[in-house]
Amino acid sequence: MELGNYFKILSRHKLTLIIIPLITIIITYFLVRHQPDIYTSEAQIATGIVDKSQQALSNNNNEAQQESQIAQNFDNLIEIMRSKKMLNQVSYQLMIHDLTSNEPFRKPSKLFTTMDGAARAHALAAYKDFYVKHKELSLYNQDQAGLHNLLTSMKYDDESLLKTLSIYRAQSSDFIDVDFSTDDSELAAFVVNTLTQEFITYYNTTIKENQHRAIGFLGNLLQSKRDTLNAKIIELRNYKIKNRILSLPEQSRALYSQLADFETHLEQAQREAIANQAAIKNIDDHFNPKDRKYFENAMVPVNQSIVNLTDQLKDLNQKYIQSDFNPAYKSRIDSLQQAINEKIMQSSDKYITSPLANQQALVTQRLSLQIAYELAKNGIGSIQNELKRLNTELDGIVPHEAVVQQDESNVDVAQKEFLEILNKYNQTSLDSNYIGQLKQVETAMPGIAEPSKKMLLVILSGIIMFVFCIIVFFFIYFFDTTIKTPGELANATGMPVLGYLNLLSNSGIDLRQLWTGPNTDHEIRQFRNLMQSIRYEVDTDLDHHKILLINSLVDGEGKTFLATNLAYAYSLVNKKVLLIDGNFHSPGITKSVKSNAYIEDYFNGSTTDLEAQAGNKITVLSNKGGDVSLFEVSNEENITSKLNELKADFDVIIIETSALNTLNKSKEWNTFADKIMTVFESDKKISNSQHADIKYLKSLDEKFIGWVLNVVHKFNPEEKEAVK
Q: Is residue 263 helix, strand or coil?
């Protein structure tokens, strides 16, 4: 599919491309010539969402807001302004103005003019009531439905206002612009200012009401949280007083410290006891029983004194442990220890050893170790008792610790909740005293009429219609599968195209005049050139053969016209031509030439001599019709014999047969043809049923020499190359 064909379609329909847009322009002009002028008014609202200077007392920190959140806030404000609730307030104000003013904004509608004085008074009172109460008209109520119809008739309803109302954020600024366009400048300014003021009043009032309700709610909640906190604090205080608790963490730390200290002393005392016991046993191993008995008897007075001092040291050591190792007891213990050591040294001054053995030093050492061992054992018992007492005290603290921790946790949670509610209460109280952020910074004024768009609409209508026609023709071209050029025929069938014949505008054509008369008409000259080109191609393919069969896929493709003109073309090159009308179904050649020689008679032997027409160069064999087939006229052997006789008498034999859709009536002739040529009319599609006939032609191999495209519309002769 070539784009050049598309431009050819446009060229053929150039008048359509001119007339239709021109008609559209004329219609548009008459439609818009009485269109009123348009006036636009604009107002601007500062929101305070982005501007930090308006957030000094507010907790809305712009830096913490994401761009998406800011955009959402603007969208919410814009949707509130566009809501039916806001637009109803404007509609009521417009109707109140027109009902009370001698100069209404718009020409009263038919419904408006039909109202009498009572109806007007009722409508005015109703609109004022609905305006004050911010109520919406109910279409289920007959009276309110009538008021709504009145609004609609004046085009003051919300849907009519929204058609030319534009509300948008000015780029990424802090401002919202409100535009309204109408045919009256005063009306445009009134709508914009009224909508802006109604929106600001509604929004600020709503915010204040919400803040006051929030303050009341937070105040009650704050008192409840304060009472809860006080109750938790009192409960914790009473429990500590009842159980004599000053500070459980300090008490616990003191007990753990004492336990660690006593465990250290216990470990030290146990090590000393074990060491002393082992040393005593080692000394005892150096004495025999007699020596030990002698030593013990000799040391009785000294030992008695040492025992008494040791008992005092044990009592004092126990008090020292029970006092958590008070340093005051330490000095007294050291004094008793010194006294014991003196007694031991006093005993060593006496001669108490046996003459046989001098072991005085061992005896003294054993006595010291024995005293140290007794003290260590006594200290272990005292330390263990103190450890038991401390663990008992610690076990008594643990239940109190759990209760106190739970109560302190409850107090902490209640305090946090109280402080959080207090912060919200303080901030809400601050916001409630802060002036509303929304304010109108630019008031709408009656403006001048905008430049007229009438001429622009007229021009656009013509351009749009012209483009629409171009698109329509493109769709026609794109989805058009008809064959228009030899190249398209060759591509569609996959078989060669011998040539094409142009369309002759004159329906009444004299073939004799066409081929023998002067060539003054361009179409005639082109047709003859194309016909001679086809004759040359056919003559080349025939070579030494003589019988050429011309058929088509369906009737009416131009077989008769082609066959007759091909015969004339051959006659001009001094060829003796026999033209046979083999189309029993529709004998076109017979009707146009009216020859007296019939093929039925020739095949049956009734006629033997054929008389030549057209200067003895063209001879025509007609048929008698009757819708018969060739083999019904004669048998194959006889037909072959007769055609061979004709080959001897003529240079070229051209046979026109019926269309291939007549089945055997056309195909029976193919048996006797040397070459076959098929005619196809341009601007026609190849149907699904015709694909089988094309496949049959392909099966004929070299016998089929190609197509001839007939009735072509203004095709460029240079484009016919490479179609074979």
A: helix
Instruction: Tell me which of 446-450, 552-556, 696-700 is least confident.
Output: 446-450
Largest distance between two CA atoms of the chain: 193
pLDDT for res 359: 54
CA distances from 479 to 473, 475, 554 (A): 10, 6, 23
- 181/520 Cα distance (integer angstroms): 68
Task: Give the CA angle between residues 399, 400, 406 to the nearest 5°.
Answer: 95
Q: In what order do the strands lie in the sheet with 439-442?
A: 165-169, 175-182, 39-46, 439-442
Of the candidates 719, 715, 676, the one whose C-alpha atom is nearest the C-alpha of residue 501 is 715
Evaluated on CA atoms 378, 379, 381, 385, the torsion sign reads positive
CB proximity list for 299: less than 8 A, separation 6 or greater: 347, 352, 363, 367
> Using the 8-state DSSP alphabet, how is residue 344 labeled?
H
Residue spans of the domains in the chain: they are 1-36+452-480, 37-54+65-208+438-442, 248-429, 486-720
Give how far Cα 697 sits from Cα of 495, 549, 561, 581, Å. 9, 12, 21, 21
* Higher pLDDT among residues 125 and 356, named by residue: 125
Average pLDDT over residues 111-128: 91
Give start and end residues of each alpha helix (H) in 448-521. Answer: 454-478, 486-493, 511-516
Q: Is the pTM of this model over 0.90?
A: no
- The 10s digit of each residue's pLDDT in 569-605 is 998 888 899 999 999 888 888 888 877 888 888 888 8
Are β-strands 175-182 and 39-46 bridged in parallel, bridged antiparallel, or unpaired?
antiparallel
Residues 230-239 pLDDT 10s? 887 887 778 7
Q: Which residues pair with 40 in a beta bridge?
A: 181
CA distance 480 to 5: 11
Q: Indicate the burial class of 664 (C-beta count within 10 angstroms; 0-12, 13-18, 19 or more).
A: exposed
Find the distance separating the first CA and the last CA of the chain, reported in whole Å. Answer: 18
Query: Alpha-carbon Rg of the chain, whole angstroms?
Result: 64
Tokens of residue 669, six digits: 């002739």
Architecture of the domain delimited by 486-720: 3-Layer(aba) Sandwich (3.40)
Q: Distance (Å, rounded) from C-alpha 642 to C-alpha 649?
A: 11
Where do the DSSP E strands lie in 571-673?
A: 577-582, 618-621, 652-657
Which stretch of 34-38, 370-374, 501-505 has the lowest confidence by average pLDDT?
A: 370-374
d(Cα 560, Cα 229) in Å, to the nearest integer? 116
Q: Is 504 within 8 Å of 523 (Cβ atoms)?
A: yes
The region that residue 521 occupies, defined by phi over 0 for left and psi between -120 and 50 for alpha, beta otherwise, is beta
Per the CB < 8 A criterion, the answer to whether 194 and 87 are in contact is no
Residue 30 sits at the vertex; the CA angle it makes with 25 and 35, to the nearest 5 degrees, is 115
DSSP characters over 422-434: HHHHHHHHHHHTS
